[in-house]
Amino acid sequence: MFSGLSIGSGLLIFLTLALVFIFLLIRSWPAIQTSRELTGNADAVSLVQYVAPLVYGTVLAALLALLMAVPIAVGIALFISHFAPRSLATPLGFLIDLLAAVPSVVFGLWGGVWLVPRLEPLFFFLNEHLGWIPLFGGTVSAPMRNMASASVVLAVMILPIITAVTREIFLQTPRLQEEAALALGATRWETIKTVVLPFGRSGVVSASMLGLGRALGETMAVLMVLSPGETFSLRILQVGQHNTIAANIASHSAEATPDVMARLIFTGLVLFVFTFIINAIARAIVSRTTKS
Predict the structure, then answer these.
(1) Does 63 lie in the same domain as 20?
(2) Separation between Cα atoms, residue 24 and residue 29, nearest integer Å
(3) Tens of pLDDT along 28-43?
(4) 3-state secondary structure at position 3
(5) Is the four-CA dihedral 212, 213, 214, 217 of positive or negative sign?
(6) Which is nearest to 72 in space by CA: 130, 137, 157, 7?
(7) Residue 171 and residue 288: Cα distance in Å, rounded?
């Protein structure tokens, strides 16, 4: 009976995913059928032209957030698991877990009202002194509701998830291996570098992929911070250059006509497939890392 329930539960997950995929495919099929290049009308764009900038913006925002969040999350996890006294590590761990439960709309309000004005001096400095780098180039102006601001908010949002998972992995490091390294004369940092980090490598990858999944699908925080655009620009400080799939769906779905809704659902299908591929790649990386 237990075996049957376990297999049935696993198959139910696959069935649910399959039904979601079929629903998205059916509802977006009109947009797929009618999509074609129209050379006589400058206002008409193909489905690929419509989706490609959104995919680019989604991936760019998620990667920037991951780049900022992962090093900080690993550092916090190491501090909680191996440096902080128990009297500090326990409440700090609870605080990190509670931060992961904050709704995204709260992060969006915090980012749009409080964070963006305080990031503007830093962004002006980067644009003035490092403007020769494509990421910091372009014409900047306040309020800076740009990709950089949205990425910082996303990084704060995924930080608790990555930290919590990584912390639990580091705490599972075999105590005997750590004691053996210390007995051989290794310092605490050398023990972490040679024992803890190699042991938790697969866990860090898994935690990063969980954070990446949330960053790819985040809606309200990005919608409330980012000023949308439809370009492939690398200038993350310039306003009106980028947009994400989730934010675009949320901003246009309320007043969408059937044709526009079909396109929006197709972008949701693209995001669904893309997230599924990312998770599959992450599982492969974790499996290979664990075997090695």
Answers:
(1) no
(2) 8
(3) 998 888 875 544 444 4
(4) helix
(5) positive
(6) 157
(7) 22
Whether 164 and 96 have beta carbons less than 8 Å apart is answered as yes
Q: What is the pLDDT of residues 71-98, one digit of tens each?
A: 999 999 999 988 888 888 888 888 888 8
- The single-letter DSSP state of residue 135 is G
Cα(39)–Cα(26) distance, integer angstroms: 28
pLDDT attached to residue 41: 47
Largest CA distance in the chain: 77
What is the rounded distance in angstroms from the CA atom of residue 234 to the CA atom of residue 243?
Answer: 13
pLDDT digits (tens, 9 = 90+) for 83-136: 888 888 888 888 888 888 888 899 999 998 999 999 999 999 999 998 888 888
Question: 1-18: string of b/e by CB count within 10 Å (b at 16+)?
Answer: eeeeeeeeeeeeeeeeee
With 0-12 / 13-18 / 19 or more C-beta atoms within 10 angstroms meaning exposed / middle / buried, residue 79 is middle
Residue 157's CATH number: 1.10.3720.10
DSSP state letter for 133: S
Q: Which of 221, 182, 175, 190 is nearest to 65 (CA)?
A: 221
Q: Give the position of tokens 């959104």.
A: 54
CA angle 284, 168, 82 (to 5 degrees): 120
Q: DSSP E strands: which ranges in the chain?
A: none
What the block records as the tokens of 64 is 């920037």
Give the closest residue to 170 by CA, choosing from 204, 211, 194, 212: 204
206 with 271, same domain? yes
138 and 20 together in one domain: no
